[in-house]
Design a protein that fits this description.
alpha+beta, 11-stranded mixed beta sheet, 4-stranded antiparallel beta sheet, 19 strands, globular, disordered C terminus
């Protein structure tokens, strides 16, 4: 399969504010007779407190069957169409340029910078990898005659603070097959190009590099600590932590460099499961948290937070303000998705492609160079 000539980077600067959002609901028979504010507060309690929904109604942000309603006690009838208009807002700063590592008719692999979210969520509804991919695809179809329309989408996630390789599918078929690869469990691929890095037959292998605080005694270790959730302010579905009652998770850690003077270690990590924040949790669980991690500390648990700082304060649009305690999306930790080996979802070729080896991002490399003087990072 021939490679297409691609630009080195894609991406356009973010607008000052996004376009806002609209949320549509049809009132079910069971909710007929509820007041407008009762409906929204019951269904979307995690979006805003009661006072916040009152503010949104009075701000003329909600319509019933196309008409603006400002009375919170308005009774609802079954099958009424409700639309909540979330006002445009300035999203937090985020990088926008994506280095293109590989592209063909079915896949595109990009080097995601730290600080850029993959999919919409929370305050980041526009400033995401997905948005830049969509804008890029739209530009290609409008400027190139005969260019086949594609809908590139990421097929896995990287944490907002994690840099490195992100695989994206350009067709429905490649998306479904790559999704199946990840569903089988991220592990390793046996292939002559891997130099024994990968020695078990799987469809995909993801290799990470991380800088951890402390010196790892053993050259290699396998961590099998389960990962579960706990209640945590600012994280609606709960915070993932090391938990004996959680789901199974396995990470293989190998030491690349130790820096005795600065008490840190450069490690390589392969995961055979894909729990959220798994690498951060597992490394902190064994007492080696990522350098710069604002959330996880030894034991795979969060830093202490102050419940009194997480009350119901809200923004101008009525939504909850960001809590004072650290949350998973906070950046600063040093984790890089360094390498991917996979069976191509269409051609079935099994290769370690040079295009899939991302150069460690400048910030990460700078930290590593400062922390590990007079040493060369392995390719």
């Amino acid at each position: 399969m021939s490679k297409k000539a691609v630009v080195a980077y894609l991406g356009v600067p973010w607008p000052q504010v996004n376009d806002g959002l609209t949320y549509h609901d049809i009132v079910p028979p069971a909710d007929a007779g509820l007041t407008l504010i009762e409906f929204y507060f019951r269904k979307y309690k995690k979006s805003a407190p009661l006072q916040g929904w009152l503010q949104r109604i009075q701000n003329k942000q909600i319509t019933i069957d196309g008409k603006v309603v400002t009375l919170p006690d308005t009774k609802l009838r079954a099958s009424a169409e409700l639309v909540y208009h979330r006002l445009p807002w300035r999203e937090p700063d985020a990088p926008y340029l994506l280095q293109v590592l590989f592209e063909d008719d079915y896949l595109i692999a990009v080097n995601k910078p730290s600080g850029l979210q993959v999919l919409p969520g929370g305050l980041y509804q526009q400033r995401t990898v997905l948005t830049q991919l969509q804008w890029h695809a739209r530009k290609l179809t409008t400027t190139s005659s005969g260019c086949q329309k594609t809908h590139p989408v990421p097929v896995h996630r990287l944490g907002r603070g994690t840099s490195g390789i992100l695989l994206c599918a350009k067709t429905k078929l490649s998306k479904s097959r790559l999704a199946a690869y990840f569903a089988e469990g991220t592990s390793v691929v046996e292939d002559k190009y891997t130099n024994s890095e990968c020695n078990t037959m799987r469809k995909i292998c993801k290799i990470y590099r991380a800088l951890v605080s402390g010196l790892m005694d053993m050259d290699e270790v396998v961590i099998k600590q389960p990962i579960g959730t706990i209640k945590y302010p600012g994280v609606a579905k709960g915070l993932y932590v090391a938990s004996p009652s959680g789901k199974p998770a396995l990470s293989s850690i190998r030491v690349l460099e130790r820096d005795l003077e600065n008490n840190c270690t450069l490690v390589q990590v392969e995961i055979q499961s894909g729990r959220p924040h798994q690498i951060r949790i597992h490394l902190s669980f064994i007492g080696l948290p990522l350098i710069g991690d604002p959330l996880y500390v030894s034991g795979g648990q969060p830093k202490c937070f102050h419940p009194e700082l997480t009350g119901e304060s809200f923004e101008k649009d009525g939504g909850y303000q960001r809590p004072e305690n650290p949350v998973p999306g906070d950046c600063g930790y040093n984790l890089h998705a360094h390498q991917i080996v996979l069976v191509h979802p269409i051609s079935n070729e099994c290769k370690l492609l040079d295009y899939f080896i991302a150069v460690i991002t400048f910030y990460f490399y700078q930290v590593a160079a400062l922390t590990l003087p007079n040493r060369t990072l392995l390719p």
